[in-house]
Design goal:
The complex is a heterodimer of chains A (about 550) and B (about 100). Chain A has 4 domains: about 100 residues, Sulfite Reductase Hemoprotein, domain 2; about 150 residues, Sulfite Reductase Hemoprotein, domain 1; about 90 residues, Sulfite Reductase Hemoprotein, domain 2; about 140 residues, Sulfite Reductase Hemoprotein, domain 1, CATH 3.30.413. Chain A is about 40% helix and about 15% strand. Chain A is built from 18 helices and 21 strands. Chain B has about 100 residues and is α+β, with helices and mostly antiparallel strands. Chain B has one domain. In chain B, strands 3-2-1-4-5 form a 5-stranded antiparallel beta sheet, with helices on both faces. In chain B, strand 2 and strand 3 form a beta hairpin. The longest helix of chain B is centred in the middle third of the chain and has 12 residues. Chain B is globular, with a radius of gyration of 13 Å. The chains are: A alpha+beta (about 550), B alpha+beta (about 100).
Chain lengths: ~550, ~100
């Protein structure tokens, strides 16, 4: 894992010292709120509905056990004993008090973490495939590039006042688990005809009020050109971006208004200017960074015990079938620890759970932890012979839920239970969907399904790319939920289609049930997933299932 | 033609803790919505909001929120303001826990 250089350390400590003084000046009255707000936002501190909220970056979703324990310590010392993992691989603390925030930032700096650039119109936390360095389908580990981008974008003087926020995602695999097509810049590793690794560069994707799938501006970018090319994109955006209109300020609108061809030409022209200015220091740095991401010393040991246990124990088997992913080393597995126990808040972990996960990562997982954008925790390297013991420990702590990739593995933003921008609640909808279908025992029969819920048009819950997306709105002073179907966040990214009129808070779970019962009736065979079935039959049968009952009522 | 003024309360968050508070008729900041001053006059509402936002060391983010008379005092009319009176629905945190006696 990457460790801070002296430069990183000094920078983060200096920012903690600056912000500590800024908080002191705000509390004694020499800074007004208007003066203080941008300063606190630069350090990840928001004022939400009931309290302040501190958003801490987890760069490309990678955490050490020591860092996880420190997050638990912060949760216990200055918050309410838990943290919320977000869809951008951050963690949010929902109840910090302003005078305590400097101490929290200092505690974060002690473990090489910070909350810088988790807000504001700058380059945000660079997100990556949560299976990086472990996935069987991977061309190369994307994290060294993500770290290079992190260092380059942190406090970059040219890009601190962009027209709007800017999000970069990177994956090293052809199977996209990082939603690269819905980011301002998406980087997908590919190989050229000569077999060399490089990047497909996707620009202008985004969700929010104007959802768009990104367009490819370069099919193959040699890896040595990464920084100058990304800088060229930012530079063109910084010039063209619509600072006059907040709703048109994201790069997706710039790309849309300029046109793919024209913007590609501008990026390439700027790249031609910038390329010679990069003298190779970035590549030297990349080589050093890469050493920090060397694979762990994989153990060579028999896996028979795992095979025997898998055959013998149905509970373990159910968990293994849903929560394990193929590792590039056949003796190993990638373990997803579900933070979606039925009825729990998606993405929340208590401090006890965080400490246990840290212990388990040390004992069984080569001390490596990841946070996924799907709000789960990953142990990327677990030897198969350790899986039964790991599973038993997880079950004891309420972390053994076997639901990854299934209905109850729901992404949900904090919604109006916490967020000042929200127009409706998301969390209770996720909780009720999970418990309702658990009671019906339908989840495993329904099979792979991604439900994603946002509590406002800003789409932090990625509802547009959910197989079933739910968007909570305020319709004339009442919570109302709009449904979209057929969204997909993978390499075949698609924005979901609206079904029609929305549903009231107490109607949304029955509405989703009608959709899923229709799917069970019309699928060709159990192996045809919801998304495949939707692509085959289209919207009409689901619309009929959703609205027919209402029509009958109206006719009566 | 301007829309008819609907009754309001002045609400904000405490600067240090972030807690939701309401301005009372006797110039206190109360955690209870029902203790808020229910303001029926638009000019008076603007005066009270100015008074609130001037208290820069006490509160932050002050605004006027719709309210209506209730049996023990003003109550919120919108669900967002109703949530602000008690806290999140997924945990027993915030006012619903802190103020429960």
């Amino acid at each position: 894992m990457y460790s801070y250089s002296d430069f990183d350390e000094a920078f983060v400590r200096a920012r903690v010292a600056q912000f500590s003084q800024q908080v002191a000046r705000r509390l004694e009255g020499s800074l007004t709120e208007d003066e203080f707000r941008p300063l606190r936002l630069m350090n990840g501190l928001y004022l939400q509905l009931h309290a302040y909220m501190l958003r801490v970056a987890i760069p490309y979703g990678s955490l050490s056990p020591r860092q996880m324990r420190q997050l638990a310590y912060i949760a216990d010392t200055w918050d309410k004993g838990y943290g919320h993992f977000t869809t951008r691989q951050n963690i949010q603390f929902n109840w910090p008090k302003l005078p305590d925030v400097p101490a929290i930032l200092s505690a974060l700096a002690d473990v090489e973490m910070h909350a810088i650039q988790t807000s504001g119109n700058c380059v945000r936390n660079v997100t990556a495939d949560h299976f990086a360095g472990a996935a069987a389908d991977e061309i190369a580990d994307p994290r060294p590039y993500a770290e290079l981008l992190r260092q380059w974008s942190t406090d970059h003087p040219e890009f601190q006042f962009l027209p709007r926020k800017f999000k970069i995602a990177i994956t090293g695999s052809p199977n996209d688990r990082a939603v690269t097509k819905a980011h301002d810049i998406g980087l997908r590793m590919v190989r050229n005809a000569a077999g060399e690794p490089g990047f497909e560069v996707i620009v202008g994707g985004g969700l929010g009020r104007t959802p768009m799938i990104g367009v490819t501006v370069r099919d193959f970018l040699p890896e040595a050109d990464l920084l100058p090319y990304v800088e060229a994109i930012l530079s063109v955006y910084n010039t063209l971006g619509r600072r006059d209109n907040k709703y048109k300020a994201r790069i997706k609108i710039t790309v849309h208004e300029t046109g793919r061809e024209a913007i590609t030409e501008m990026i390439e022209a700027r790249f031609a200017e910038l390329r010679p200015l990069f003298g190779g220091a970035d590549q030297k740095l990349l080589t050093e960074i890469r050493e920090a991401f060397a694979p762990p010393a994989f153990r060579n040991a028999p896996t028979d015990a795992y095979d025997a246990f898998y055959k013998a124990d149905p509970v373990f088997r159910a968990w293994a079938d849903t929560n394990l992913t193929r590792h590039r080393n056949d003796q190993y597995a990638i373990v997803t620890i579900s933070l979606k126990a039925h009825g729990a808040t998606p993405g929340d972990a208590t401090s006890d759970q965080m400490r246990l996960i840290a212990d388990l990562a040390e004992r069984y997982g080569h001390s490596d932890l990841r946070i996924s954008h799907e709000q789960n925790v990953i142990l990327p390297h677990v030897h198969k012979s350790d899986l039964p013991a790991l599973h038993a420990a997880l079950v004891k702590a309420g972390l053994g839920t076997a639901n990854v990739g299934l209905l109850s593995d729901i992404i949900a933003c904090p919604g109006m239970d916490y967020c000042a921008l929200a127009t409706a609640r998301s969390i209770p909808v996720a909780q009720e969907l999970a418990t309702h279908f658990e009671a019906l025992k339908l989840e495993h029969e329904i099979g792979p399904l991604k439900i994603k819920i946002s509590g406002c048009i800003n789409a932090c819950g990625h509802h547009h790319v959910g197989h079933i997306g739910i968007l909570g709105l305020d319709r004339a002073g009442v919570e109302n939920y709009q449904i979209t179907l057929g969204g997909d966040g993978t390499e075949d990214a698609v924005i979901g289609e609206k079904t029609g009129p929305g549903f009231a808070y107490d109607e949304i779970v029955p509405a989703i049930e009608r959709i899923l019962r229709a799917y069970l009736d019309l699928r060709l065979e159990p192996s045809e997933t919801f998304l495949q079935a939707f692509r085959r039959v289209g919207m009409e049968p689901f619309k009929a299932a959703l609205y027919e009952a209402e029509r009958e009522q109206d006719a009566a | 033609m301007s829309r008819r003024f609907t009754p309001k309360v002045v609400t904000a968050n405490r600067l240090r803790e972030g807690d939701v508070v309401y301005l009372t008729a006797d110039d206190r900041w109360s955690p209870f919505h029902h203790e808020a001053e229910l303001i029926e006059d638009e000019a008076h509402a603007q005066m009270r909001l100015l008074h609130a936002t001037a208290q820069k060391l006490t509160v932050v983010g002050g605004y006027l929120a719709d309210a209506r008379p209730g049996p023990i005092g003003p109550e919120p009319t919108h669900f967002r303001e109703a949530f602000r009176t008690r806290g999140p629905s997924n945990y027993h945190h915030g006012k619903q826990a802190d103020l429960a006696n």
